[in-house]
Amino acid sequence: MSYNAEDIKILSDIDHVRKRKGMYIGESYNPNHLFSEIFDNALDEDMSGYATMPIDITINRITNSYTVRDYGRGLPQGDKILEDGTSKSVINILFTELKSGGKFDSSSYKISGGLHGMGDCIVNALSSSLIVISYRDNTEIHRFEFGKEIDSEIYPNSDNLPLGTLVSFVPDKDMFDSDKISTDFIVNRCKIASAFGYKSRITIINKDDSIEKISTESSINDLISEDDDKLATFINHEGSVEDEDTGESIKYAIWYTNDTSCRNKAYTNLLPNPQGGTHVTIFCKAFEMAWYKIGVKDILPKDLYLGLRFVVSAFISETEFNSQTKDKLVTKRKYLEKFLEPLADDIYKFLSAEDNKDIVNGLIKIFQEHRASQNKLLAKKEIKDLIYVNESSKDGTVRRKSVVTKLKECTSKSRKDTEIIVCEGDSAADPMVRCRDIITQAILPIRGKILNVSKCDLKRALGNKEVTSIINAAGTGILEECDVSKSRYERYIIMTDADDDGLAIQSTVTSLFVNYLPGIVKAGMLYAAIPSLYGWYDKGEFKFSNNLEDIPNELLNKHAYERYKGLGQLNDNEVEAMLLDKENRNMVRIDYPEDVDRFNEILSSPSAKYDILCSLGLVKFIE
Asked: Which are the contacts of 38, defined by CB distance < 8 A and separation ≥ 6?
C-alpha cells in the first residue's frame, strides 16, 4: 500500500464537514443539531436587543425543509476584501468557510451562543439545499446545493420588508440515519427561549397542505418535566443577578418537591448544557452558602439538594464549551466568580424572608432527618466493611492474629493483665518493642496528630488509617456496638511525649476512645501515661521524676541529669524502667466525661480551651 506525496489530500471546509461530520455535530442519527445552529444565530440577535418581532419557524412536511426567520439586523451584505486582494461575498464566506463570523469579539455581539464561527458552514455542508436571505437596505439571496453555491442575487428592499435573516434548509438524507428533525426537539428549544423571555412562533405545513400553529409559551418551571403529576412543591423562587459593568447575568429558579432526587437544567446564552459546567458549580456553591448562612446544622451540603429542582441560565460574553455541541460550559471559574456573592445574597434574602420562615424550618427538619437516617445506614455498612470485631474462641482465649499492620502483638492467649500501648511514632515504638514483656504488652505506633473525631462525621473518621488501626486493635466494635467483653486487652495506655504536640495527640486519641470506644472508657480500661520530665543516674541506678527537687543537689548543680522533650531520647534501659515497668511507671486512669457534648466542644474549639486555661489561672485576659 503506497504512502507518498500524491496520497496527501487537502479538503475544502465543506468536504471536511461532510467527510468527518461527527467531530462537528456529535451523533448523526438525525439532523436536530442543524436546526440548533440556525436557531441559535437568530436568538443571538434577540439577546443582543436587535429583534423587533418573535422568531418565525416553519416546518414544511411536503419538502422536508426547515426555515428560521429572525427580525434582527440581517446578515452583512456585499463583498469582503480578502488578504490576497480578491473579494468574496460575505454570505458565501459565512456558509462555506469554517472559522468565519462576527462573534470572535464583542464588537458585534455582547451576548451570543455562537462561538466558533462554524455553525452556518456546518448546516450548509450537511444540507442537500439551503437558501439564505438577508433583509437590509437590499435583499440579498444565496442558494446552495450540497454546500456549493449555485446562484445569488441582490436587489433593493423596495417592499420595506422587516430587517433580518431567513435561512431555509433541507437536510441531506445521505448524511443522517433519518433526515427528519424532531418536532418535539424544535418545540423544546423554543420553549427554553420563551422561558427566559425570547419569543418564537412555529408553523407546520402538513403534507395535505393544512396549516398548524404550535404554542411555544413556557415558564422556567416548565423546563423540568415531572413524571409524577401529584408531586408536591414546597417552595418556588425565580431570581437573577447582573454585572452592571458588562451587562452579563445569571438567571435561576429553585423549587423543592416531596421527591428525594435532585434534578436540574443548565443553559448558557440559551444553549442547553446537559452536562452542566462552571455556571452550575458557581450556583451550587452560592446556594450552599445561602443555606449555611441561614444556620442549618448537622447536615452535609448534599442534603440541601433533597427533592430540589433548579434551573441555571448564564448570559455571558466569554463562553468556552467542551465541544461544538456545547454540552458543557468550561469557561474558567475565575471568570464567573463575580456572581458568587451576589447569587448567595439573593438566595439568602429569599430564604430568610419572614413569609418563608415556616417552610424553610420545615425543610431544615427534613434535611436533618434524612442525614440522621443516612448516617445510621452508612454507619452499619462502613462498620461492617472497615471494622474488625474480635471473636474469642469457645474456651475464652484470645486469638492473637494480626489485625493491624503496625501492631506488635503480645503472645498471651488470655486477656488477663494484657495491655496495648498506643505511642507516638516509630522512634518511641522501637525501644518499647525491644524492651517490652512480649507476653502481655502490645505496642501500636501511630503517625503524627491523628484526626480529631469530635468534629467530623463517621465516614471521614473511618477513612483515617490511624483511627481504624486503634479501633481494630481493640476489637470491640464501635459506638453503641462497642462490647468490652470482646476486648483483646485488659488495659489501653496512651503514651506520648510530654510536650505540646504530645498533649495534642493524647487529646485526640482520648476523643477517639470517648466517642467511638465508649465501653472501654466506661469500664475504666483507658489510661494516660505520664512520662517523667527528668532522669538521672545515681550510683549506676536510673531514676526519674517530674520534679527538680527530687534530683540530688550534687547532680543538680553539675547539671548531671536529662530534661526529656520526647520519648525518643530514652535508651532501652530507660524506656523499660520509666514506661514499661508496671510497678514503677506513672499513669492515670481516664474517666468517661459526664458531659460528652461539652467534652467535644472543648476539644474542637480553641476558644473553649482558652476559657479553661483562664479559669485555671494559667492565662490572663488583658483588656
From this structure: 66, 68, 119, 120, 123, 167, 169
- C-alpha grid cell, residue 432: 518499647
C-beta atoms surrounding 557 within 10 Å: 9
pLDDT of residue 459: 77
Q: Which amino acid is at 530?
A: I
Task: Supply angle C-alpha 163, 75, 325, rounded to 5.
Answer: 120
Q: 82 with 75: CB under 8 angstroms?
A: no
For residues 91-111, give the mean pLDDT. Answer: 73
What DSSP string describes 291-332? HHHHT--S--GGGGGTTEEEEEEEE-SS--BSSTT--SB---
Q: Strand, helix or coil at 538?
A: strand
φ, ψ (nearest 5 deg) of residue 345: -65, -40
Residue 365: φ, ψ to 5°: -65, -40
CA-nearest of 384, 464, 456, 472 to 422 is 472
- Is the Cβ–Cβ distance between 71 and 55 less than 8 Å? yes
pTM above threshold 0.90: no
Joined grid coordinates for residue 205: 405545513
Closest CA to 11 of 3, 20, 2: 20
Residue 205 CB contacts under 8 Å (≥ 6 apart), including other chains: 58, 59, 60, 61, 62, 211
Residue 20: band (very low, low, confident or very high) from pLDDT cuts 50, 70, 90: confident
Residues in the chain: 623
Task: Kindly report the number of other CB atoms within 10 A of residue 13's CB atom.
Answer: 18
Q: What are phi and psi of 235, to 5 degrees?
A: -155, 150
State the cell numbers at 480: 453503641
Position 621 scores a pLDDT of 46
- Lowest mean per-residue pLDDT among 360-369, 563-572, 573-582: 563-572
* DSSP collapsed to 3 states, 166-197: EEEEEECCCCCCCCCCCHHHHHHHHHHHHHCC
Q: Which stretches within 196-303 are classed as H helix? A: 278-294
Give the model's pLDDT for residue 112: 62
Q: What is the pLDDT of residue 615?
A: 61
Task: Give mean pLDDT, residues 290-304.
Answer: 90
Per-residue pLDDT reduced to its tens digit, 269-285: 888 899 999 999 999 99
Cell of 91: 454570505
Give the whole-angstrom CA distance, residue 411 versus residue 237. Answer: 67
In angstroms, the CA 238 to CA 221 distance is 9
CA distances from 62 to 66, 204, 366, 496 (A): 11, 10, 55, 86
For residue 292, what is its C-alpha cell? 449555611
Residue 623 binned pLDDT confidence (cut-offs 50, 70, 90): very low
Residue 134 contacts residue 77 (beta carbons within 8 Å): yes
**Neighbour tally for 181: CB within 10 Å:** 21
